[in-house]
Design goal:
Blueprint (H helix, E strand, L loop, with lengths): L2 E5 L2 E3 L5 E8 L7 E7 L10 E6 L6 E3 L7 E6 L4 E6 L8 E8 L5 E3 L3 E5 L2
Parallel strand pairs: 2-11
Antiparallel strand pairs: 1-3, 3-8, 4-5, 4-9, 5-6, 7-8, 9-10, 9-11
């Protein structure tokens, strides 16, 4: 059974930092692309989730949305089956539910339940 469990969300002031974690099981993590998406308040549909960052299988290649480039860093530990998202210089517009996504070697998609990040003074 595939599981993606996010943690690390919370309330932070503008300019602050948070580190999200996503612990994965039930599929071949090292061969899977791991990504973070977010869904802003008021958006209900899964299709409205915004891409944030990806780490491709092996971890050598990453990709970021323009809005987070230079502030967020995605990384992965294949030995721990965990992907991270280090978020620095947070802005109120970063407020969202952050979701972990896995795309395995057969292009099957899996999602976590999400973790809330709120940036507010």
């Amino acid at each position: 059974q595939v599981q993606l469990v996010e943690s690390g969300g919370g309330l932070v002031q503008p300019g602050g930092s948070l580190r999200l974690s996503c612990a994965a099981s039930g599929f071949t993590f090292s061969r899977s692309a791991m990504s973070w998406y977010r869904q802003a308040p008021g958006q209900e549909r899964e299709e409205e989730r915004e891409f944030v960052a990806s780490s491709f299988s092996g971890g050598a290649s990453t990709n970021y949305a323009g809005s987070v480039k230079g502030r967020f860093t995605i990384s992965r530990d294949n030995a721990k089956n965990t992907v991270y998202l280090q978020m620095n210089s947070l802005k109120p517009e970063d407020t969202a539910v952050y979701y972990c996504n896995a795309q395995d070697e057969r292009d099957r998609d899996y999602w976590g339940q999400g973790t809330q990040v709120t940036v507010s003074s």
